[in-house]
Write a structure and sequence with these properties.
This protein is α+β, with helices and mostly antiparallel strands and 313 residues long. Helix content is 33%, strand content 28%. It folds into two domains: 141 residues, Phosphorylase Kinase, domain 1 (2-Layer Sandwich), CATH 3.30.200.20; 138 residues, ATP-grasp fold, B domain (D-amino Acid Aminotransferase, Chain A, domain 1). The structure holds adenosine-5'-diphosphate (ADP) and magnesium ion.
Length: 313
């Protein structure tokens, strides 16, 4: 698909009539009603936990659709918070009490895990075999939890620290997270892709002590690769073409941005490259191309779609 870098984007939603609870890095969270939230996924992009001035066309749409696809295809593994999607960029979700841990599952030794391994031979307290190479596939997926920092950067912790923070449900979280990872990897493999790593968040509510929340298996929370590309680059010791935010990260790091101060303005080819990858992740998971909505994501469109469900429910 050809991406128009000037396609109208949604940087900040403003949905009159609903109380804004939080503007996250990507999502604007509103109160829908008692016990339910209205999640608007914007086109904002962040790396190093900092939000850029530029937006990525179709990102909020792609993330929302990928998450819904992922939820619909993992319901046999765990409950999730999704209730309905009144607008292509929005979801009504069950409000949960979030467990204060980000559950990162890795199938490949890369990124911060690779850096930790090089330094200490282990990642989040998990000892790995000697002599592993960058981007090598792990024998089996591992969980490297981190704490959800309100501001600043997330901090890696060990599994036993995570268990102290969330309680005995941690054992179930680990089991479910591995199954979710394997499902994502399996779905991507049908399109010649693989899941390198991903992050899940979980919450609890009432008698449900384990609910998959937030987003799942998206361009923002995951790294995907093409299997053939990974094999060739691993053998040739070059970097594969990451189907994630890596090209934005690389662009900024080459300019010296590592999270302090203002992030750079992104050139057109980085913006369109990121947009293509957002849509490619949906294709990798589902085997289908996303059809773009006729109307760009505007506050008017979202408010209009919201009105329809509020009147009905
Ligand atoms: N079901 C839920 N109930 C309450 N909070 C949730 C739920 N699902 C996700 N959240 C929280 O909503 C926010 C989503 O916005 P996001 O842009 O991802 O924020 P962040 O910058 O913290 O990543 C996150 O803080 C996430 O933990
Ligand atoms: Mg988030």
């Amino acid at each position: 698909m050809k991406i128009d870098p000037n396609y109208p984007t949604l940087r900040e939603s403003n949905i009159g009539g609903l109380e804004l609870i939080k503007r996250g890095k990507v999502r604007d969270v509103y109160r829908f009603d008692e016990g339910r939230l209205f999640f608007v996924t914007t086109d904002r992009i962040s790396t190093h936990d900092v939000v850029y001035k530029d937006c990525i066309p179709h990102k909020g749409f792609g993330l929302t659709q990928t998450t819904i696809y992922a939820f619909n295809n993992t319901e046999d593994i765990v409950e999730n918070h999704f209730l309905k999607s009144p607008d292509p960029n929005a979801m009504v979700v069950l409000e949960t009490e979030q467990y204060p841990v980000e559950v990162i599952v890795r199938g490949i030794l890369t990124g911060s895990a690779w850096r930790a391994y090089q330094k200490d031979g282990e990642v989040c307290g998990i000892k790995l075999p000697k002599g592993m190479k960058k981007n090598q596939k792990l024998d089996k997926p591992i969980i490297t939890p981190s704490t959800k920092a309100e501001t600043g950067h997330d901090v890696n912790i060990t599994g036993s620290r995570a268990r102290e923070l969330v309680g005995s449900v941690w054992d179930e979280i680990e089991k479910v997270a591995i199954e979710l990872f394997e499902r994502g990897d399996y779905l991507a493999s049908k399109q010649g892709g693989m899941l390198a790593d991903t992050k899940f968040e979980f919450g609890k509510r009432g008698k449900y002590d384990l609910i998959l929340t937030d987003e799942a298996l998206t361009h923002d929370s995951s790294r995907y690769l093409n299997i053939e590309d990974w094999k060739t680059s691993f053998e040739g010791e070059t970097e594969p073409d990451w189907i994630d935010k890596q090209l934005v990260r690389n662009y900024s790091e080459d300019l010296g941005f590592t999270g302090d101060g203002e992030p750079p303005i992104l050139p057109e080819q980085i913006i369109t490259g990121a947009a293509i990858r957002v849509l490619e992740v949906y294709h990798l998971l589902s085997g289908e191309e996303l059809e773009l909505p006729e109307e760009p994501p505007t506050n008017r469109r979202i408010a209009r779609n919201l009105r329809k469900v509020v009147v009905k429910s």
